[in-house]
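LOG
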Amino acid sequence: VHRSKDPRRMIREAQAICVGGGNTFALTKKMQEQGLLKAILGKIKAGTPYIGWSAGSNVCCPTICTTNDMPIVEPESFKAIGAVKFQINPHYLDANPEGHAGETREQRILEYITANPRRYVIGLREGCMLHYENGKLELIGSRPMRIFKKGIAPYEVKAGDDLSFLL
């Protein structure tokens, strides 16, 4: 496998960008060190397809503040690519196991939107994805997506529902 000494050049020449999972803090730190956030955003704005899952979906948001990962390293900042205007919480779970005295995902997201009242957060469940093309955003998958916004009770949307409010 050929590895470029200039990762930004690889992004500039890419026909598509695919960013997988792992620890979001480690991914963000490496992307910041290599100057990839702006390079990727520029390519996305120019029409290059972006595919991201797990940490790869976190880094397409304005920040990585809604990741589920442990901060095992310290990135320069929580700023991410900013390809979408909303935050994603991938692997979203409603679970609150009996006897569990800790916070649920919903409680953590509610804390986030209290501190960031202008931002939507979407809880994206396993087996689902968002697809954006030609100005249209759609949920694909059999499970609903949970929507969080300050001042609005959390609610569910399903595949086929209008998501234009997120754009």
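LOG (cont.) second protein
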Amino acid sequence: MIDISKKKVWFVTGSQHLYGDEIFKQIIENSEKIVKGLNDSPHIPVKIVYKALVTTPNQITDVCLEANTDKKCVGVVVWMHTFSPAKMWISGLSKLNKPICHLHTQFNAKIPWDSMDMDFMNLNQSAHGDREFGFMMSRMRKKRKIVVGHWEEERVQKKLGIWTRVVLGWDELQNLKVARIGDNMREVAVTEGDKVEAQMRFGFSVNGFDTSDIIKNMNKVSEKDISNLLNEYETSYNLMDSLKKGGAQRESLVEAAKIELGLRAFLDGGGFKAFTDTFENLGVLKQLPGIAVQRLMSDGYGFGAEGDWKTAAMLRAMKVMTYGLEGGTSFMEDYTYHFTPEKSYVLGSHMLEICPSIADAKPSCEIHPLGIGGKEDPVRLVFNSSAGDAINVSLVDMGNRFRLIVNEVEAVKPMEELPKLPVARVLWDCKPNLEVAITSWILAGGAHHTVYSQALTTEFMEDFADISGIELLVIDDKTTIRDFKDKINSNEAYYHLFQHRM
């Protein structure tokens, strides 16, 4: 479902034609060693390819144009081994539309005190070569990731790894197709938005379909496929008695399996990697898709309930970013609060659709009434989430721009059992505390739907916002209401003045 094996990040080294062939030979040799070292790092999931040493304006422009048209290239890392007059970069950078990371490093870690001469200094002058390059990037208002430090340091490799994961997610959005099965939940505002602007900004397309498209595929499902999926349910989850073979509600599990098989066939047949549904447009579906959606999310599909296409797209992008990392990522909703004088918490959940990638144990497969939608009782997976640090991410359309809101949280074990709550759930402590976090979230216009991730951090979202050219608001342990209000107000002015550049 997620395949990054063919994706590449290009490594481009800058210099200038004055140095001569011997110096160029050394620069290329050093660059290739750096690239090998980065590819050997366990923190960088994407293969880095040493692409070129560029020393003239034409060479720079050519490599930028080539990057644009190479579907395997998801981003470009640029490093100035020597001084590289930055006016040479104007044409290329103005045309480059792939994400860029400026690696500010040098080949040697330490100064060779006893042997260093001017030849060494001229060769190893990233300290001011990268400053010249950095000026031009800033002068051109080019958003980019800047990583500073020696290339062999784990800290540097981890930061590069984060950026490469984000560009994988960004690359995924460029051709992502989101299927909106049914329309938006009626009269709801935040799940709406400008789908045309979103496609222009992020690349993904959103188009509407009907549940009849799912039914057509359900009607093609074979008994053998249903039997195999039921066996998978039985081995993967703890089935409640009524859903087991011979149980009183076994046919509901069979219907859930048909829905999953039909939905998968529809998504795969149309090339959709993300989708939405809504309980108000179920057509002849007998139950709201529950376990089907949960399992699709676990496999890497993006999802948004009630027609929430923005969250569906973000979930897919973030699933790609987390490939190979520990910790789950799920569609989420802020549902209810736990207020106490000492500390207050949020219980996150949804009617059915929480991804089992965040489960702390083998989920239970259950069936319960759903007091909304007017359909038969749906089958769903029930579990608690594992504890630990996480982020909640909301992408909203503010009319004149998209805004990405991040709240850092810590998931905790529920204080007591929840024997009558028939849905998956996670209890978290908002940073800096519930009062400040929720006040800030509401001031920012954050949605009730989010992407909840235990695998990603705020740095991933900061890189994503820079690449996509959208606003980022972070709520963390340093947030104060007064400063957050000032940030929102200053951003209004900033994005009004510079939206023609965004």
